[in-house]
Design a protein that fits this description.
The chain folds into two domains: 101 residues, no CATH class; 191 residues, Arp2/3 complex 21 kDa subunit ARPC3 (Orthogonal Bundle). Helix content is 72%, strand content 0%. The chain contains 17 helices and no strands. α8 crosses α14 and α12 crosses α14.
């Protein structure tokens, strides 16, 4: 287990070093799930007189202690985490001392700039708004690129999916519904040069999806829990299916040559009416497609949350299954732990 030198004040510490050592400790303890760590912390708090209603820390708070790039770490919480992972009380004190040392070093770092007087200070206050606008434009362009990439890959691989609304979902959830609409329309306009004129009609599907994602997340609070987020994406799938079915039946006689239409053909051969066959086929494939879109968008929200405020992201992550939290943290953990032997070597060196 990583330990301090005899005098913590003599050792240089950083929050990233502490996070990496926490990752190593957790893996050495048997890759204990974050939910189990939360349960152990709550149990210890209750044994020390904390009411059960106030004893359980948020799972995302515990998860964040293992995350790199932190600018602040709670020493008491870190002590509770390592205690839950099986270290002795003496080592708990050492971990807390490491956190305090990292805080002293962080607070002692010289400021990167000095206050600006008068008009220069006013101009400096405007810069974050300009940066936010620029970042929003960059994100929208990236979202269009993601949509177009999915739009192009599907016919190339003959996939029975759509994959042309991942960027629409990201823009609608992070920036707002009408940003998603703009991304969706741009995607279908570009699609004209990839397929045929049918692409522009299906811009209506992108519009409907963007509005439901955006307003569902903000106005109807459908992203406050993971289960509601899954429900929101199912609603998007149903709504997009209704629009797509209408377009396919009225304008294209039920088919445009998409790989998913093999299901439609099979249903028609079984005697189902064309409209019902188109609806069932689209619904089945759309539910799968929007499920993949939901997880892709969730990962993207975690990535862009360092530049954009996504107010519901913390509660959304906190309520998702623990396995997804472990998956999200896997890359950082695997980088820090190339192998068990490497972990032991690092531990011994410390």
């Amino acid at each position: 287990m990583p330990e301090l030198a005899q005098d913590p004040a003599l050792r240089s510490e950083s929050y990233d070093e502490i996070a990496k050592d926490l990752q190593r400790l957790r893996f050495d303890a048997g890759d204990i799930p974050y939910a189990e760590i939360v349960r152990r912390i709550a149990e210890h708090r209750e044994q020390n007189g904390v009411p059960a209603s106030a004893s359980r820390p948020a799972r995302t708070t515990v998860y964040d202690a293992f995350r790199l790039g932190r600018s602040r770490v709670n020493p008491t919480l870190v002590g509770e985490i390592v205690r839950a992972l099986g270290v002795s009380e003496a080592d708990v004190a050492l971990w807390e001392a490491r956190c305090l040392q990292a805080r002293r070093q962080h607070d002692a770092e010289p400021p990167t700039g000095v206050p600006l007087p008068g008009a220069e200070r006013i101009e400096a206050k405007r810069k974050p708004k300009q940066a936010t606008l620029r970042a929003s434009i960059i994100l929208m362009v990236a979202c269009v690129g993601i949509n177009v990439a999915g739009f192009s890959i599907v016919p190339w691989l003959s996939l029975p999916l759509y994959l042309d609304m991942v960027g629409t979902a990201i823009a609608a959830l992070v920036l707002g519904p009408w940003y998603g609409v703009a991304v969706g329309l741009a995607t279908n306009a570009i699609g004209l040069s990839i397929t045929d004129s049918s692409s522009i009609w299906f811009g209506l599907v992108n519009i409907v999806g963007a509005l439901i994602w955006g307003y569902g997340a903000r106005r109807f609070r459908m992203c406050q829990t993971f289960s509601r987020y899954v429900l929101l994406n199912a609603i998007v799938a149903v709504a997009c299916t209704l629009v797509a079915t209408t377009l396919l039946v009225l304008l294209f006689n039920g088919a445009t040559g998409h790989a998913a239409e093999q299901t439609t053909d099979a249903l028609v051969d079984m005697g189902e009416p064309l409209t019902l066959a188109v609806f069932i086929s689209n619904l089945v494939h759309s539910l799968t497609d929007k499920g993949l879109t939901a997880f892709a968008a969730l990962g993207a929200m975690g990535f862009v949350s360092r530049w954009f405020e996504v107010p519901f992201y913390v509660s959304l992550v906190e309520t998702q299954p623990d396995g997804l939290l472990r998956l999200a943290n896997m890359f950082d953990a695997r980088k820090a732990l190339a192998s068990r032997a490497h972990a032991r070597a690092v531990r011994d060196a410390l």
